[in-house]
Amino acid sequence: MDWKVLLNKLLASGEVLLKATIIAGIGILVIRIVMSLVTKMLEKSKLEKAAHRLLKTVLRVLLYALLALMVASSLGLDVTGIVALASVLTLAISLALQNMLSNVFGGFTLLNTHPFGAGDFVEIAGQSGTVVDVGIAYTRLTTPDNKMVSIPNSAVVAAQIVNYSSIGTRRVDVPITASYNAPVEKVEQALRNAAQVPGILEDPAPFISVTEYGDSAISYVVRVWVKSEDYWDVHFAIVHNIKKQFEADGIEMTYPHLNVHLDK
Prior knowledge:
The chain is about 50% helix and about 20% strand. By secondary structure, the protein is of the alpha+beta class.
């Protein structure tokens, strides 16, 4: 064997490997710089922080895929063949992971339409809770009883979304019944007194009215407006106060009953 030929081949291979290593090193450094710039741009943007991770993950995957193609090309590999193979593999993977991809596209839809943000109290697909973040595949909520619920983004996009925090105020409705023996004006005044709790807003003003004359009782409703974060505190305070106020005013809080008359 000609040692000079072997040496030249080794030197050529070393040059190729060195070139590929340099490209990989520079590429990784560039990707880190780009990701750092993107992070700073996202922090200055109005986009919800819950969406930052999703965008950065997708961008990072694309950049590393491009870098891998550049390294392969520097090693003398047929990039065209790799791209064709990657296309076939991508199709196969997309068919196998159809639900996962639906969730990913659902995540992008949520980022674009922005129906809610981190910290909002929402109701989605029968689940209520505070939004923690919008991930690549799932939207996570914490429920009032401190459970973590992960809902697929595809289900979130398809479901009706109720955002209780976007407007900033909510109406508290407390239904109650009272005996026919109690004058309506007396009951309404008692309910008005019971509704005087911290957190209610003066505008719109509290509203108390009869809603129905039932078989065994008169139905009333108490409606007050509050800030979204005060909803449950005010709701429970009014419910607690109503019974105390009814007892103080001698008003009977009825329950369903049936009067039976026997003929002699």
